[in-house]
Amino acid sequence: MSGDTPAPASLSPSWDANLYLRFADLRLRPALDLMGRLDGALAARAGHAVYDLGCGAGNITRILAERFPTAPVVGVDSSEAMLAKARTQTSDLRISFRTGDLASFRPDASPAILYSNAAYHWLENHLALFPDLVRLLPPGGQLAIQMPRNHQAPSHALMPVAAERGPWRERLAGVRGIAPVADPDRYWDALRPHCSALEIWETVYQQPLTGPNPVAEFTSGTGLRPYLDALAEPERTAFYKVYCELVGEAYPRRPDGTTLFPFRRLFIVATR
Ligand SMILES: C[S@@+](CC[C@H](N)C(=O)[O-])C[C@H]1O[C@@H](n2cnc3c(N)ncnc32)[C@H](O)[C@@H]1O
Fold first, then answer.
1. Rounded (10°) CA dihedral 217, 19, 95, 102
2. Looking at ligand 1, which residue's alpha carbon is closest to its atom 8?
3. Ligand 1 atom showing the smallest separation from residue 222 Cα
4. Which residues of the chain fall below pLDDT 70?
5. Which of 22, 63, 254, 270 has the highest Cβ tally under 10 A?
6. What is the pLDDT of residue 23?
7. Which atom of ligand 1 is nearest to the CA of 9?
8. Residue 110 counted as domain residue
9. Which residues face 259 on adjacent strands?
10. 116 C-alpha vs ligand 1 centroid, how far in Å?
């Protein structure tokens, strides 16, 4: 676990880049699905930058740089652990990384694209931020957001249940997990007045996992982190074991050894 200081205006916990990247392939697919809906016309014009908001370890930032081969690409994140990893992964001078809080993000160059994969759900008031982000774009610029919307699934609903089931109950009482992502129509209503075009969709990915506690391992890289951060050993391991048992029952291993972990994600592409 890293010693990151949480961003003041968000619920962001500590981040472990290597643990997060353990499921890099599965986490990459929605990032590419979102990227596939972007229009490169504005990014191809001089003077416009592409931003990767909540860039984490920078693996998507590098793909954005390939997709938009002439634009400066700027990764922004509040986690020094993630940014440290990101900076070791590229020597491309067109890509830069900077520390910043998404709650108060402002671009320092004209943005062709404000892209964000799996980051804004850590900000409680993210819905209120999106219209302002669209207004930062020049005409034709795009805001592209992907957020997990799995908080009602057992993987996430069982986190507070495990928090209640042990002597750690009081220590976990104040822990807030990921801010629930609202129904798609709420984002539509908030964004439509500010866009020339708006596309919103959801996909449920049937993720095939392997190993003894694969769902717990997956969430321990993201959504479970605020709970793990709040406990010291040996309670941390004991809490994790209870959570593993609960999610193990909810997501049984199939006859071929695979554990299917359905995961819902919300996508937004708003064009100014
Ligand atoms: C689940 S990771 C996603 C990383 C990357 N976008 C990807 O898809 O691989 C979420 C990232 O959002 C960042 N984050 C969360 N809250 C943030 C905030 N308020 N400001 C900046 N970054 C934030 C975290 O530090 C973390 O790197």
1. 60
2. 117
3. 1
4. 1-21, 178-179
5. 270
6. 80
7. 19
8. yes
9. 209, 253
10. 9
